[in-house]
Design goal:
Number of helices: 12
Distance between the termini: 50 Å
CATH superfamily: Aldolase class I
Shape: globular
Order of helices and strands: HEHHEHHEEEHEHEHEHEHEHH
CATH architecture: Alpha-Beta Barrel
Structural class: alpha/beta
CATH class: Alpha Beta
CATH topology: TIM Barrel
Largest sheet: 8 strands, parallel
Length: 346
């Protein structure tokens, strides 16, 4: 088996440490700039660096965050005083990870559907990122729900790419985060979301098996089974937890190293409540750890408070840590809406 097998198992276990989750801070430059523009922050290489540095230097963040997914620009950057951001990450007790896909592009012959690209040259990029200090990677596939979509072709193409990526990661010493995101956009019901997520996960694990991916050395990053944003009937927290765990138990082998949910456009409070409910109601029957890998659901309040100003760094870091604490509590099944009232004191 792979020369990296034992290391990969140890890294996977550390990523899934009790009470911790993974921070997704791998927004592309374009996405990061759009978020900056929305809150009136100047867009530049230095501002993006300042923002990522502010996140990674948040005191005690490593108590609640096991790993951070970085973007290509970030993993190469130095802090203002000349220290590599990767080193800052490591010193905080946070495992550095890296986004390696090249974004979802239009799927030829299937209007309205996407396939994620980036397999060409991936082996060499993995080797470079490993040398830089990355110990896990992420690849995101997007599955849209709409009229007559997703097609079988779209689901299969994305599942195949995810499995090829995961196999290359394990060969090169990185733990793969496998992220098949069923998008929240649309007016579909939670029942339709369940059906599509079920089919997607089934295809993904078939392909992972075909490509020889070691399941105990990977992390699944799924979307929750949830009502579409435009659905007039929004499922309750209990329904989301029940449908989601049922879907996972039907498709995710017990050997998988862990499940770390994406937030997918949910509010920070809702994302925490859903994760908490899953751990309260079903934590004892899930064969894998169930945690979070959130981006906006952890970062957004901090970004809005920071506004690109040094004077606001401390407040922004307190807000970031608060969201990390809330999600850490949800990971343990100990979150409550009362925790949000602590924000008033910040």
């Amino acid at each position: 088996m792979s020369q990296h097998a034992e290391n990969l198992r140890a890294i996977t276990k550390a990523m899934m440490a009790k009470g911790k989750g993974i921070l997704a801070m791998d927004e592309s430059n374009g996405t990061c700039d759009k978020r900056f523009q929305k809150v009136g922050i100047q867009t530049s290489v230095d501002k993006r660096r300042d923002y990522r540095e502010m996140i990674l230097t948040t005191p005690n963040l490593g108590d609640y965050i096991s790993g951070a997914i970085l973007y290509d620009e970030t993993i190469r950057q130095m802090s203002r005083d000349g220290k590599p951001l990767v080193k800052i990450c490591q010193e905080a007790g946070i495992i550095p990870g890296i986004k390696v896909d090249m974004k979802a592009k239009d799927l030829a012959g299937f209007p309205g559907e996407k396939v994620t690209e980036g397999l060409d040259g991936l082996r060499d990029r993995i080797a470079e990122y490993y040398e830089m200090g990355a110990r896990f990677a992420k690849w995101r596939a997007v599955i849209a729900i709409g009229e007559n979509i997703p097609s079988h072709a779209c689901v299969e193409a994305n599942a195949h790419a995810l499995a090829r990526y995961a196999a290359l990661c394990q060969e090169g010493g990185l733990v793969p985060i496998v992220e098949p995101e069923v998008l929240i956009d649309g007016n579909h019901s939670i029942a339709r979301c369940f059906h599509i997520t079920d089919a997607t996960l089934h295809s993904v694990f078939n392909q992972l098996h075909t490509q020889g991916v070691a399941l105990d050395r990977m992390v699944l990053k799924p979307s929750m089974v949830i009502s579409g944003k435009g659905c007039p009937e929004q499922a309750s927290v209990q329904e989301v937890a029940t449908f989601t765990v049922r879907c996972l138990l039907r498709n995710v082998p017990a050997l998988v190293g862990g499940v770390a949910f994406l937030s997918g456009g949910q509010t920070p409070e809702r994302a925490a409540a859903h994760l908490n409910e899953m751990n309260v109601q079903y934590g004892d029957i899930c064969p894998w750890p169930v945690t979070f890998s959130y981006a906006r659901a952890i970062q957004q309040p901090a970004l809005e408070a920071w506004k690109g100003e040094d004077a606001n760094v401390k407040t922004a870091q307190e807000l970031l840590l608060h969201r990390a604490k809330c999600n850490s509590a949800a990971r343990r099944g100990e979150y409550s809406s009362d925790m949000e009232k602590q924000l008033v004191a910040v």
